[in-house]
Amino acid sequence: DADPEDSPAIRRLADWDADRLSDIADEHDTPLYVTDLDRVAENCARLRAAFPDADLRYAVKANTARAVLEAVRDAGLGAECASAGEVRRALDAGFDGDDVDYTAVNPPERDLDAVVEWWEDGADLTITVGAADTLDRLRERGYDGRVCVRANPGVGAGHHEKVRTGGAAKFGVPAERVAEVFASARPDFDVVGLHAHAGSGIHGDEDLAAHREFLARVADLAGDVGDLEYVNVGGGIGVPYRDDEEPLDLDAVAAAIREELDGLDARLALEPGRYVVADAAVLLTRVNTVKGAPNELVAGVDAGMTDLLRPAMYDAFHEIRSLEPDSVDREEAPVTVAGPICESGDTFCEGRPLPVPERGDLLALGNVGAYGYEMASTYNSRPRPADVSLAGELLRERESLADLTRLER
Ligand code: LLP
């Protein structure tokens, strides 16, 4: 078992074994995700140490690789699922139905049909409901199992406007209607919890302050509705992406949560996604072309926004490091690292100081384990990359050109 005491709070690119990564790239080609399953277990162990009594449910959407799900399950966490597809993956990876939450955000009919069918077949999962009429849709299907009500406390936090859910109208039951929805649910379902999620990538003082405000409001709502098995305060625990950022102090986060929820007679539940997997994977890519003036170098690489969307979508920062042994002796210059997609947004960095790149260089992008592979697409008819464990096991095959047209009729 992973020992949280021996496990650093963050793993930077420089902590990966460059020779090992290079060998894996030679064997499996690029672009390539490399995932360290031991690091997944360590991250789970550190969460467990900080939140010894909480229900921890891994937000499957961050990384759905079967081997990752199994590592999380082995570490004793449950699964939080955003769709029927995620519920299916969690059950297939061996999570007990009891440990599976289906967070139904505007759930499609087909998803409700599937999840209720699996519940009828014996998966005793919990459905987290964010709208009064979702309860009706469950009643119509004869569901009377566990339900958790998702509230919208009206305050969000997170690394980008696009991922702050706490205030966005599409999520949850508005605070002023929460009591009424609980009252309507209680006679028909086994109502076990109150849920709220502030947003993703909570990191830094401003976010932590907003998160406290969020927690205070959740505590108020929980006090109002009473009689709860648990209060689920969502995911959102951030990780440092830049090398000058410090990792969050998990114990301080835990203390803040305890303080704000103090006095409630309910277990704490949390749904961390990013924290579990972010620093457990790197993306390897090769430089195919170098051009531009000495101070405006562009390194064209074989990975693009189709493999890692976060920089294009959120202006997210990912550390980039050359894995070439001689790169330490090279001069640094401002480099734009760009993918092969026909969009100007398809860059991983612009004018970032890096060792002067050469054609054929192998580069690594750090902290891509969360929302990296998962947001990959086949835009520009680019097959999705492969994902290999650090131990060398193929987790997800590289898509082929034939896969691109497989569903066409
Ligand atoms: N619970 C709920 C209800 C969520 O919606 C999410 C994330 C989580 C838990 C997990 O949050 P985490 O611990 O990972 O912050 N694609 C974006 C992140 C979107 C997060 C969506 N919801 C990104 O790449 O930054």
UniProtKB/TrEMBL annotation:
Its EC number is 4.1.1.20. GO terms for biological process: lysine biosynthetic process via diaminopimelate. The keyword Transmembrane does not apply. Residues 38-278 form the Orn/DAP/Arg decarboxylase 2 N-terminal domain. InterPro entries: Ala_racemase/Decarboxylase_C, DAP_deCOOHase_LysA, De-COase2_CS, De-COase2_N, De-COase2_pyr-phos_BS, Orn/DAP/Arg_de-COase, PLP-binding_barrel. CDD domains: PLPDE_III_DapDC. The active site is at 342 (proton donor). Transmembrane segments: none annotated. One of its GO terms (molecular function) is pyridoxal phosphate binding. It catalyses: meso-2,6-diaminopimelate + H(+) = L-lysine + CO2. The keyword Acetylation does not apply. It is an enzyme of class 4 (lyase). Signal peptide: none annotated. The modification N6-(pyridoxal phosphate)lysine is found at residue 61. Substrate binds at residues 274, 310, 314, 343, 371. Its cofactor is pyridoxal 5'-phosphate. Specifically catalyzes the decarboxylation of meso-diaminopimelate (meso-DAP) to L-lysine. Belongs to the Orn/Lys/Arg decarboxylase class-II family. LysA subfamily. Homodimer. This is Diaminopimelate decarboxylase. It comes from Halorarum halophilum.
